[in-house]
Amino acid sequence: MEKSLDITKIYNHAAETIKNAILKGQYEAAKGVNRVQLFTYFAIGKYVSLNTRNGVWGTGALKAISERLRKILPGLRGYGETQLKEMRLFYEGWSFIDSKSSVATDNLTKDNSSVATDELQLIANVEDILGLIKIETPSAFPMEDYLKTPFTHHTVLLRKCKNNEERYYYMGRCVEEHMSVPRLEQVISEGEYKKAGKAPNNFIERIEDKNLARKAVMQFKDSYLLDFINTEEIGERDLQDIDERVVEQQIVHNIKKFIMTFGKDFAFVGNQYHLEIYSEDFFPDLLFFNRELNALVVVELKSGKFKSSYLAQLMTYLRILDDKVKKSHENPSIGIILCKEANRSFVEYVMQDYDKPMGVATYTTTKEMPEMLKDTLPDMDELKKLL
After folding, report:
1. pLDDT digits (tens, 9 = 90+) for 58-98
2. Which of 222, 242, 199 is nearest to 364 (CA)?
């Protein structure tokens, strides 16, 4: 009987403690501090994690506590047993941003049991759950995207993605595209993360801001389908530089299609953009500005196979852009070689000695695709009618 009373007292105290956090979180959120609502779930998740993973509350605790919450906060929604488990998942998945986390819930051992006991003893008397956490931004962690991603989306990311890099990618997509939960689940199941960020590059090594480097990596694919380029016209030309000019002209003529293919947040600056240094003139093929990366992006077109000399050419453009064109508030310029063929291992090998951020991607046109694959593409006229 006495043990039953003790458990009741523990559950009642836990419900009161969570209630206080809920009310404070709602008050702060009402003032427009939306991140507090997310951190409320994070803090409650920690409170639940530390008490359930160590057996302090016992079996059936979350169900009992959620029932008490409904009684002391009539009409309360979103704090049932399932939701409390999701908050625990939310905390445990992102616990590394909590600098007060002295116990990693998935690494508890007998060696640190005394630490766990001390922290739980402290928690037993805490009325302000938000005081249990202290949020810090680790290197390369996308805190802005984290705060803008809804809680339910976070739980999908933590359940369905295998690692943090994959979560960061879809988190950014959620923010940019305002994805619904079903849409997020769809793009994860289709493996879109595996399709992005595969172009050989040196962004991680050459961009100091690691969060920005990660965004740059995910911004560019290793291959693009440029279905608006007339390959028959290119094939009639004998000189390689003329071939590349044809590609350039068709891209400029279809610049909207190219930007849609290349990615979001690109603004076209110009083609054959004039650069001059020490009375020497240079004309990079295509120049863009990417709002997400806050950086100029120069794209150099090559109609044949990748050559190491292309990187030296690109390096020259990037240095002049950074010295003469880049604004003081912008990030260092990024260069992309867009060619017909590229040996990934060779590209990565020769790229090691260049200190400017650059990558290499390939392109394909519709006429060069296998017939079976070509047949799967939608007819553009029919698609326009449907839209």
Report:
1. 788 999 999 999 888 887 788 899 999 999 999 999 999 99
2. 222
